[in-house]
Request: fold
Amino acid sequence: MRAGRAILGGAGAAILLLAACSSDSGLMNIRPGDTDGPDEFGVLPNLPLERPAEGGELPPPDPGGASRADPDPRGDAVAALGGARGSGTAADSALIAHAARAGSDPDIRERLAAEDAEYRRRNRGRLLERITNRNTYYQAYAPMTLDSRAELARWRAAEARTPGAPPASE
Reply:
């Protein structure tokens, strides 16, 4: 009887031990050769449906065309920056010219990816952190993190309005 309980207890402990080792901490670990990971911008919610004005006419059907309820992040960004909503570079030429007024680098994505890979290679963490696969993301990028409290104090000292920030405690 006691041997059966000991075996069941040992098996239960082994299962718990294996379950504890199954956490997926690889999402934010900084290692060379990491996969791209999840694409948090890949899922976009639909826009709310709009009801036409009383007596208003519905738009003509457009089989195979884009739904008006589907989001258009590129068009929204262009409109927010003052460009004309529409496709093609003709509608966006003024916006593109203004954004590139100081010059642009066509290889910016590749250059930044290479610089970030080099930075992550130099800031991989200590030996035990690498062996235990510990998350070193925040530690590695700590020098680049904005201190929000110090920044808020700086803006308040300059007497700038900070309506999105909590009121200053007195």
